[in-house]
Amino acid sequence: MSAELEDIHEECGIFGVWGHPDAARLTYFGLHALQHRGQEGAGIVSNDHGHLIGHRGLGLLTQVFSDEREIQRLKGDRAIGHVRYATAGSGSTDNIQPFIFRFSDGDMALAHNGNLTNCPTLRRELESQGAIFRSNSDTEVLMHLIRRSEQPTFMDKLKEALNTVHGGFAYLLMTENAMIGALDPNGFRPLSLGRMTNGAYVLASETCALDIVGAELVRDIRPGEIVVVDDDGYRIDTYTDRTQLAICSMEFIYFARPDSNIYGVNVHSARKRMGARLAQESPVDADMVIAVPNSSLSAASGYSEQAHLPNEMGLIKNQYVARTFIQPTQELREQGVRMKLAAVRGVVSGKRVVVVDDSIVRGTTSKRLVQLLREAGASEVHMRISSPPLKYPCFYGIDISTTKELIAAKKSVEEIREFIGADTLAFLSLDGLIESIGLNADAPYGGLCVAYFNGDYPTALDDYEQDFLASLTPEDRVRIPKFALDDSDYQGNEFSCQKGLKPGEWPPKQ
User: Fold this and answer.
1) Report for 147-161, 334-348, 451-465: range of highest mean pLDDT
2) In sequence order, what are the residues at sequence separation of 6 or more whose Cβ sits closer than 8 angstroms to the Cβ of residue 445?
3) Is 12 noted as a catalytic residue in this protein?
4) 49 burial class (0-12, 13-18, 19+ CB within 10 angstroms)?
5) What SS3 class is residue 220?
6) 133 within 8 A of 152, measured Cβ to Cβ
7) CA nearest 32: which of 204, 152, 226, 168?
8) pLDDT (tens digit, 9 = 90+) per residue, 314-337?
């Protein structure tokens, strides 16, 4: 895991299985493969002949299910699960998913990956109508909307609710008779459907979770789609035709596991291409390339091959140290970096090194890395970042809600270089990122959301808009392409599609 990007967090991963006799245990395995997407809490809900049984708690999956009896108690051949990192809602047990809702006409469970941009408004409206929330997570909003809908069927109610919520979301619902997945109209978060040899179906945030349970990929769920899995198999439905693929580019840069495939693109291969493109764009005379472990390994490999430089292990990560982002002071955070990463003196001493990392967030971790390498005797330290500078917040489910601590929002590349103390510093260009990932979708930015780099948001920002606009400098207002920030693009409770493109112009051409 990149030392720098530990300051940014993906909020969660979801996994569900339908039709396997040991569904809860299978869900445990699937969630274990998705643990990188959330370490704050975990939960599993099983379906035993229509009766939903759940267990959830704070901590890693192995801590929450440390007692084998907890898995054994979750009977049934259907289950859904969730691993969480909070983006909306506090870190308490009340916010750990999946949520179970018990109604007179049957139980339901719900898990959510993403963030709703109009949640505060919807929640106020629902509370004014008498709704009672038992958590402060935005996930509950969907269930209240479903139950209050006057549409005739459950699927009609669900579709109406999905058209009411805005933002980034991959939902996983469990009813007595079906497992249902739904993706937002832009497909910000990934969701895949798999099938096991015994006929069981699996839904997962990443294909690496399908692999671990021996499921074969059936298809990626696409923007605006609903997939319904029941005893008759699966079927695909849609709730809107106002779709525009804009999957989070951070999935490819950092969040997804290297062995996952997203819309047919292997994550490791994409990162390797990013590194190679970075070497083409920003070459430097050096003796070796080193990666910041672990998610920069692929990009460093690509850089070294393109630059014809040896790829050395110049930094070692201690796998058994608590995550540094929990440290309450800057001094302790910097000490945490020293505990977590060590420079290999015998490798870097007297050498000119190219350090490849995923991103620079605050800049403090990169500064400490440069210091570590210089203390270990490196004669030159050249930082190369396999993504563009992070300048703008994310409102769709990544924990970058403010620009205050984004160093690239305040400093130029040269000023950042001075701050971290590197001999040179270069970032991957936005075009280089898009071309390296290679989705090639018929959509802006090749089907990627790159708003964190250029401020060009694929949707209206709803409740976040005023705060975001207030954070912009006069230079930002001139530089940022306008479409979602223009009132003329808003469509009430519907997502605004990007200008000049027809709804549904996707998926990537293979």
Assistant:
1) 147-161
2) 246, 249, 430, 434, 456
3) yes
4) exposed
5) strand
6) no
7) 204
8) 999 887 755 443 344 555 555 566
- Among residues 4, 41, 56, 49, the alpha carbon closest in space to that of 23 is found at 49
Q: Exposed, middle or buried by CB within 10 Å (0-12, 13-18, 19+), for 470?
A: exposed
> From 3.30.830.10, 3.30.1330.80, 3.90.1150.10, 3.40.50.2020, which CATH number describes the 267-319+328-433 domain?
3.40.50.2020
Evaluate whether 408 touches 416 at the Cβ level (below 8 Å): yes
Mean pLDDT score across all residues of the chain: 88
Q: Go through the chain and tell me how many residues it has.
A: 510
CB 250 within 8 A of CB 270: no
Read off the pLDDT of residues 455-485 as tens digits, 9 standing for 90 and up: 999 998 998 888 787 777 777 776 665 534 4
Say which of 12, 394, 449, 497 is annotated catalytic. 12
The whole-angstrom separation of Cα 319 and Cα 89 is 29
4-240, what's its fold? Glutamine Phosphoribosylpyrophosphate, subunit 1, domain 1 (3.60.20)
Which segments of 156-299 are extended strands (E)? 167-174, 179-183, 192-195, 201-204, 216-220, 225-230, 233-238, 247-248, 261-262, 265-266, 288-291
- The DSSP bridge pattern shows strands 192-195 and 216-220 to be antiparallel
Rounded Cα–Cα distance for residues 26 and 80 (Å): 10
**3-class state of residue 255 by DSSP:** helix
- Beta-sheet strand order (sheet of 99-103): 99-103, 106-116, 167-174, 179-183, 225-230, 233-238
Domain edges within the chain = 4-240, 267-319+328-433
What band does 136 get if pLDDT is binned at 50, 70 and 90? confident
- Please name every residue paired with 346 in a beta bridge, in sequence order, or none if there are none: none
Query: What is the per-residue pLDDT for 502?
Result: 36
| Alpha helix stretches (DSSP H) within 289-429 | 297-307, 330-340, 345-348, 364-375, 413-420
The total of other beta-carbon atoms located within 10 Å of residue 27's CB is 30
- Indicate the helix (H) or strand (E) that contains 41: strand 41-48
Contact yes or no for 110/171 (Cβ under 8 A): yes
Which pLDDT score, from 0 to 100, does residue 102 have? 94
Q: Mapping DSSP to helix (H, G, I), strand (E, B) and coil, where does residue 482 land?
A: coil
Judging by beta carbons within 10 Å of its beta carbon (0-12, 13-18, 19+), is residue 319 exposed, middle or buried? exposed
Asked if 235 contacts 275 with a C-beta cutoff of 8 angstroms, the reply is: no
43, 81 Cβ separation under 8 angstroms = yes
